[in-house]
């Protein structure tokens, strides 16, 4: 049987002598693993924990696992696609770098020329690429990284905390809004490239079967939730909906977690609110870097504007039928209830299944 386990594959790759050789060995392995279409414009490849869209991201994850050397000051943003990645990257970058780049410095802020995905890069999409090994040693502390990988596929050096000391910030979002956001993103790509669009019922089917990028959705959330419960000082766990409700509170928690607490003079001077405003959907969407810039993600050049659509809670109701929503909510309840009742309690506020079964 062909291997579909990154850890097993990494054992095979251990004797690779150069970066190129390691990358090629992982590519050869992943290319032989089972694949199928799913909620992506790329073929999805099966690994022991779920599905990855395209060979390159899985290879990048495996190579990062082999080579990434964590520092205690590192902070890694972890999310599933379309859960609030762009927003949390902006908030973290703006918070950590506020001394050299004050949030209210209008035209001078790096966000005017760089999108959040260029300020905090993905390990698997942008850093561990085919062409050359990234030179991460040269980066000053604190280094900020991002990943969409499930917790179990994080680089071993990240999971090795507390010896590495590295911290993780996770954001999750109502699966229905995550799915709808992803569907729009995929279909925008399909439209740009003259491909057939994915219908919403097919998208729901893929999502519920777990055949979505870095899916299944529920296992991804649960992996980070368990890690957060075990080591809250190492894994911060945010919900997109709560960030929308209280962005300032989340900026303060983020700052404290990252070791960049806002001082009293900063609080009095409105630095928290300035950070919230700078990173708000309405502000970011109007920046030149968003309107005219793009980000290279593996081999795809993505216009930065594609990372912004509506930025609302509950937009799913405009796209997903009540029956489809009920199907997703029933899975959420079944998956989260045994090990994460407080997560289900939270998501019950945005679920239709309870209301229907009560009514
Ligand atoms: S990606 O491709 O994984 O990085 O996408 P991600 O950033 O996780 O998700 C994109 C959705 O997040 C919304 N968004 C925001 N919401 C609130 N505030 C800010 N600043 C913000 N920036 C992006 C974006 O509009 C996508 O959600 P939808 O529902 O599609 O609008």
Automatic annotation (TrEMBL):
Signal peptide: none
Pfam families recorded: Sulfotransfer_1 (PF00685)
E.C. number(s) listed in UniProt: 2.8.2.-
Domain (Sulfotransferase) ranges: 72-336
A molecular-function term among this protein's GO annotations: sulfotransferase activity
Transferase as UniProt keyword: yes
Keyword annotations of the record: Transferase
SUPFAM superfamilies: P-loop containing nucleoside triphosphate hydrolases (SSF52540)
Family the entry assigns: Belongs to the sulfotransferase 1 family.
Protein name from the UniProt record: Sulfotransferase
Organism: Oryza meridionalis
């Amino acid at each position: 049987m062909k291997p579909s386990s990154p850890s097993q594959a990494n054992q095979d790759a251990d004797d690779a002598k150069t970066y190129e050789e390691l990358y090629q060995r992982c590519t050869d392995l992943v290319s032989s693993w089972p694949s199928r279409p799913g909620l992506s414009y790329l073929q999805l490849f099966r690994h022991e924990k779920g599905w990855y869209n395209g060979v390159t991201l899985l290879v990048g994850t495996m190579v990062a696992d082999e080579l990434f050397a964590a520092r205690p000051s590192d902070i890694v943003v972890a999310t599933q696609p379309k859960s609030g990645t762009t927003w949390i990257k902006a908030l973290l970058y703006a918070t950590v770098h506020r001394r050299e780049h004050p949030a209210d410095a209008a035209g001078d802020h790096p966000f005017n020329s760089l999108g959040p995905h260029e300020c905090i890069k993905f390990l698997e999409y942008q850093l561990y690429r085919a062409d050359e090994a990234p030179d991460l040693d040269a980066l000053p502390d604190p280094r900020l990284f991002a990943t969409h990988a499930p917790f179990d596929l994080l680089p071993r050096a990240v999971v090795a905390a507390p010896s590495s000391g590295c911290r993780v910030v996770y954001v999750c979002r109502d699966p229905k809004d995550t799915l709808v956001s992803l569907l729009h993103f995929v279909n925008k790509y399909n439209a740009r490239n003259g491909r057939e669009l994915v219908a919403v019922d097919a998208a729901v089917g893929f999502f519920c079967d777990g055949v979505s990028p870095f899916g299944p959705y529920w296992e991804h959330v649960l992996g980070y939730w368990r890690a957060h419960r075990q080591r809250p000082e190492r894994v911060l766990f945010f919900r997109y909906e709560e960030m929308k409700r209280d962005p300032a509170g989340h900026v303060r928690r983020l700052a404290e977690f990252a070791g960049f607490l806002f001082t009293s003079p900063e609080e009095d001077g409105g630095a928290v609110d300035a950070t919230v405003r700078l990173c708000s959907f309405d502000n970011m969407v109007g920046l030149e870097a968003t309107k005219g810039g793009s980000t290279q993600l593996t081999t795809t050049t993505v216009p930065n504007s594609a990372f912004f659509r509506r930025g609302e809670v509950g937009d799913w109701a405009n796209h997903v039928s009540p029956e489809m929503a009920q199907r997703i909510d029933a899975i959420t309840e079944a998956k989260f209830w045994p090990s994460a009742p407080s997560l289900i309690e939270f998501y019950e506020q945005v679920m239709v299944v309870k209301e229907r079964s009560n009514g």
